[in-house]
Specification:
The protein has about 300 residues and is mainly α. It has helices at about 5-30, 35-50, 50-55, 95-130, 130-145, 150-160, 165-190, 195-200, 205-240, 255-260, 270-295, 300-305. The chain contains 12 helices and no strands. The two termini are about 40 Å apart. The longest helix has about 35 residues, at about 95-130. The protein is elongated and about 75 Å long. It has a domain at about 100-305: Orthogonal Bundle (MetI-like fold), CATH 1.10.3720. Helix 4 (about 95-130) packs parallel to helix 7.
Length: about 300
Amino acid sequence: MTNRTPASRKQGLSSPVKRHSIKRWSRLLFRSKTGTVGFIIVVAVILMAALASVLAPHDPNEINAINMFQPPMWIEGGSIEHILGTDNLGRDILSRIIYGSQISLLVGIASVVVAGIIGVTIGIVAGFYGGWIDSVLMRLVDSFLSIPNILFALVILSVFGPSVWTLIFVLGVTNWVNYARLVRGEVLSIKEREFVKAARSIGVKNWVIMYRHLLPNVASSFIVISTLSVATTIILEASLSFLGLGIQSPDISWGGILSDGRDYLATSWWLATFPGLAITVAVLGIIFLGDWLRDVLDPRSQSRR
């Protein structure tokens, strides 16, 4: 009889546990119609952004004066070469939508990461320490809440100029307050539980408690609100680009494509319609997936399963 080392036992147990976890999540996902639709849409958008150079039939910035305002292929005057038509400079709409998904997703995800880091840190510190630290940080949160996000973004972008990284920073700074308030409320409850009190009683450092005990317990709420915030951020980026203060040429985003077509709605409706549909479908997919995650990660929902 051979003796198995602890490492081998751990390795032998990890695979079934992972398989069980994957099966459980797959079962919960495909049990929900909205969750399944949202997951398919989100995966499709991510793959479209990742494989843009392969999927796009044309160079998205290639100007062709001969093909200006060419309608979609199913309308008289359209061609299969430009499935969704061309814009006022003869650029292929489908290729621009495919490439535009890269910037829109980058801005949406990166700004949420920035907001999450700021908000979760402030929320955990405020909830854990309480007292004057909590009061000062929450007054800071109230100050940010009193300023409309779109107005704050317009001022910063007007001062520093529109760019991808400036937009990510601005959207991250304007959205962190939601994370801070949510995390603070949960930490106020979690820090009174026995495992946190036990850790403090044996002299565990405060930063270790916050990192090892508080952060994992607020992770599920952070994931849910982050997923929904990505959808909101994509819409906000599109709004700023539509106003001319978002992504600038030659960079391509869905909001920028929509802005380029707003002057031709009466004559060339496809210039703004298809990027608008891309934004709508992507946002709905993210919202559907976020709603499913909220149901799955809610302890009350899990207890009913």
